[in-house]
Amino acid sequence: MPINNDAALGTASYIELLDLAEMSTQVDALVTEVVSSALSVDLLRQALATGINDLAALLRAVPVAEGRLLERGIGFVARRNPDLVILTDNLRLPVTKAASELVAMNDPALVKSLSLDADHGGRKSYTPDLLILNKVTKVAHLVDVKRSLGSYEVSRITELKQRMLAAALVVPDLLFKEHRRLHVEEVRVVILNAENQRTDIGGGVWPLTHLDHLVEITGAGRLMEHLRKRFQAEVEANWSVALRGHGPHADNACSSRIAEPETGFRPPSQKSEEQSPTDRVPVSIGFARTPRMAGA
Hints:
By secondary structure, the protein is of the alpha/beta class. The chain has eight helices and twelve strands. The strands form four sheets. Strands 4, 7, 8, 9, 10 and 12 form a six-stranded mixed β-sheet that branches.
């Protein structure tokens, strides 16, 4: 819970506090583990020796590895808050036709007091990077982590948010049935953008620096920024070592980081007569909110 909230600056302090110096050894170990599995000196040397295709494939692995590091880093930080349950595996959420239509036809603020049966899935699905539940507030956050949104068109971001909102409708039923009867009263969706550009706080697109509000830990966003810098420094160090011995012009070869590839209310469909336990409690679905927006 926030212990200080400055509405003018949009800042909040929390009881849980991260000491970056104290955690530096753990942070370094996490970075080294991710880098050594995909971007080690040996792998870089091998790619340089075998040809341009292998080298290009390896360089494309840089944003992939960084994305994996961000997901693991957020989970690592969030577990410092004892009030949180962090789920990262087996989170393939069905996106039913009824849920998609419900989100498409209504303003997100109107999609409240509703939940759908997680067992009635369709052909489409959505897999979040993390699902974070606060056992005290009973608020769950469906989280999608992006290294960058620079290559995303507005329509693509909108489609992602709608898919996330549709998937959020099954979260209460999923948590109750498959995760030890966990109860949730509100599900919020948020896209975390590590590059901190193209943000829309009210619309669920947050910069990574806002991670403090998501996990209610002061210093969480700062630690993630440090994690990214350590990753970039270690990859560049491995690259410099790998370049040695590959000719006088090797230092001019593709040393820049590779950008992430572009890779009125209407009722839902008829509901099953048999209600699940989660249907008995109204559940609110919407975008993530910072402390200063909570009372809006």
